[in-house]
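Customer escalation, tier 2.

The customer says the design service returned an amino acid string that "doesn't look like it belongs to this structure." They asked us to rerun it and document both sides in this ticket. The original structure tokens are below, unchanged.
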């Protein structure tokens, strides 16, 4: 590489004597001010490019290029390889329509009804293409949730991808992808990125810069393993967790809906109302263990424990409490800010021992005994995935998602980096996903994100550079389409099969050797060129006046770029090999300029062309530049 990483990363900020805060660009006070804090690294202003080894399905050694280099900006076409679709069939030997099964069809035909996409290729180039595809879509068709599990830059080399980039390279790789991912989100969209502790805080500052510090939502700690065997030999306490950063495109639009998760029986709920259907003033209260012991024929809980065994008896008590949650309660303290009527009832209750008081509420009445609230188990016991269970409110520490035993989920193995389907489901639930919402993962891995999205009936887009797009992801997804995959969240999602997806390869570059790749076609080259430099293609403008451009195949392509209140326009007019428009006459050039100027009133206009140009420098408008391509592109690449 031309430049190498030396030294440590730095965290920089300005106004050191004032409170440190990240400010939006619109709030900057002068041209010299910059938002802060920001993480800084060697070659930060450049981009990272690497050739892709198609045979091995991974990138080669990267090297630094200018951030506007077309090799990292290019929006390549997508080449449809196959369309996979589940077709409903009658199960052999059964009456038609009574017992259906799914058969997966794989064809090279497009199917406009299927929106799920799997793309094989470098994810930066794929994201450039997706940015182009989404540029003119309304907000409600953009991405609702992005989950990514990138290589952690741990200094190790795994079987399926290279995870040994230098720190400066890794941060550049992440920054360039996160910027585009941010652009793809809906206004109420959310990003989740899973990391270990090594780069967690660098990425946090990076995301503060891209999304805005105010759009940070939460950080979740995920228990991933238990200390065992040789792994416990560490120079510091054992690493048993990973982390998921959550950011909103606009936090004001994120409304969290409470999520309950299963938990063990809470023995604090030890009181039992034996006559819950009577008037509350006549309720009789017993210890639940004593009550249950008598119910099953024993004189006391101690006798029942001795006869049945302590653990078995307590297990039965726990089950009984769950089944009779409306009668089971614990006494909880009533705070001074609980409400005037509740506090007054609390104080009155203290002076009248063993008498039950009630405070009427529109949603749920409050009962008070001996100055404490009777908090019923029914508030804690709920149905989760078809099972009645005690629950806790979800927090930002997730210890209930086992990593053990997931190696065979989806029928594929992916050593070291596979994530549980239950984890991705939790992420989607936290994002308030509803059926049909669009989710995206550009570090596909073994395909867990797409598997979960499909089972939850979401629309999904996935990108994976490695050959495991073919060896892992497609077999996993076809198993889901056919209904044969019974692992992961299949049962709780009540998934039985169906749906489809399209499999694409990232297309060829518009450049080939020292010339354009004319096999792609003139219009594809022109539009890809514009999209690669962040221009939005506008095909509505007409140039046919004065019959200067009469052939529709010869009409130029126009792209518009808006930055604040300013507008820039780029026009591309190419002459393919053996074409008949080698020259760009003065009248045609001025016609193009006049039309563009009239419609957009841009700050300036660039005309990109490989045609000869008939114009003197002193007759060219000041806000017009004519740039010869591909010469100008290759001149940049040689710098």
């Amino acid at each position: 590489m031309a430049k190498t990483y030396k030294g440590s990363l730095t965290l920089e900020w300005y106004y050191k004597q004032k409170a440190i805060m990240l400010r939006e660009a619109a709030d900057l006070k002068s041209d010299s001010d910059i938002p802060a804090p920001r993480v800084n690294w060697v070659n930060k202003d450049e981009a990272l490019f690497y050739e892709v080894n198609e045979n091995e399905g991974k990138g080669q050694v990267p090297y630094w290029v200018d951030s506007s280099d077309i090799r990292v900006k290019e929006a390549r076409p997508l080449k449809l390889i196959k369309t996979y679709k589940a077709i409903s069939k009658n199960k052999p030997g059964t009456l038609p329509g009574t017992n259906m099964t799914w058969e997966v069809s794989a064809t090279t035909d497009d199917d406009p009804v299927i929106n799920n996409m799997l793309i094989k290729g470098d994810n930066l180039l794929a994201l450039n293409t997706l940015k182009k595809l989404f540029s003119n879509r309304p907000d409600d068709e953009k991405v609702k949730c992005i989950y990514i599990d990138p290589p952690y830059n741990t200094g190790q080399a795994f079987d399926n991808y290279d995870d040994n980039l230098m720190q400066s390279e890794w941060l550049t790789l992440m920054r360039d992808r996160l910027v585009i991912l941010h652009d793809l989100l809906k206004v109420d969209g959310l990003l989740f990125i899973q990391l270990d502790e090594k780069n967690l805080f660098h990425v946090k500052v990076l995301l503060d810069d891209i999304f805005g510090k105010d759009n940070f939502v939460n950080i979740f700690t995920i228990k991933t393993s238990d200390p065992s065997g040789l792994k416990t030999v560490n120079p510091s306490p054992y690493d048993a967790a990973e982390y998921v950063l959550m950011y909103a495109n606009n936090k004001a639009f994120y409304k969290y809906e409470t999520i309950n998760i299963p938990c063990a029986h809470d023995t604090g709920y030890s009181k039992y109302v034996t006559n819950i259907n009577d008037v509350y003033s006549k309720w009789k209260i017993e210890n639940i263990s004593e009550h249950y012991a008598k119910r099953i024929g024993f004189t006391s809980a101690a006798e029942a424990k001795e006869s049945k065994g302590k653990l078995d008896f307590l297990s039965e008590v726990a089950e009984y409490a769950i089944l009779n949650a409306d009668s089971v309660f614990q006494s909880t303290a009533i705070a001074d800010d609980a409400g005037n009527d509740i506090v007054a009832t609390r104080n009155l209750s203290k002076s009248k021992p063993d008498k039950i008081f009630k405070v009427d509420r529109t949603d749920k009445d409050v009962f008070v005994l001996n100055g404490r609230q009777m908090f019923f188990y029914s508030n804690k016991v709920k149905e989760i995935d078809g099972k009645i269970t005690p629950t806790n409110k979800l927090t930002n520490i997730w210890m209930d998602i086992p990593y053990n035993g997931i190696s065979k989920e989806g029928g594929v193995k992916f050593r070291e980096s596979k994530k549980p389907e239950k984890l991705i489901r939790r992420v989607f639930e936290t994002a308030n996903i509803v059926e049909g919402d669009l989710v995206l993962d550009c570090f596909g891995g073994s395909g867990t994100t797409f598997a979960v999205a499909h089972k939850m009936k979401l629309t999904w887009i996935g990108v994976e550079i490695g050959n495991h797009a073919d060896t892992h992801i497609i077999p996993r997804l076809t198993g889901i389409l056919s209904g044969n995959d019974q692992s992961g969240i299949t049962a709780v999602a009540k998934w039985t099969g169906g749906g489809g997806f399209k499999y694409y390869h990232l297309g060829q570059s518009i450049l080939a050797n020292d010339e354009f790749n004319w096999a792609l076609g003139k219009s594809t080259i022109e539009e890809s060129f514009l999209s690669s430099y962040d221009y939005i293609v506008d095909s509505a403008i007409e140039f046919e006046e004065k019959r200067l451009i009469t052939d529709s195949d010869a009409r130029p392509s126009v792209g518009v770029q808006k930055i604040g209140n300013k507008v820039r326009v780029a026009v591309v007019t190419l002459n393919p090999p053996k074409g008949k428009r080698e020259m760009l006459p003065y009248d045609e050039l001025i016609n193009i300029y006049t039309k563009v100027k009239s419609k957009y009133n841009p700050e300036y206009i660039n005309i990109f062309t490989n045609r000869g140009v008939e114009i003197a420098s002193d007759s060219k408008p000041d806000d017009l530049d004519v740039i010869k391509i591909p010469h100008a592109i290759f001149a940049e690449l040689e710098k």
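Tier 2 assessment: The sequence is consistent with the input. The chain has 15 helices and 37 strands. Residues 1-30 have pLDDT under 50 and may be disordered. Sent an explanation to the customer and offered a walkthrough call.
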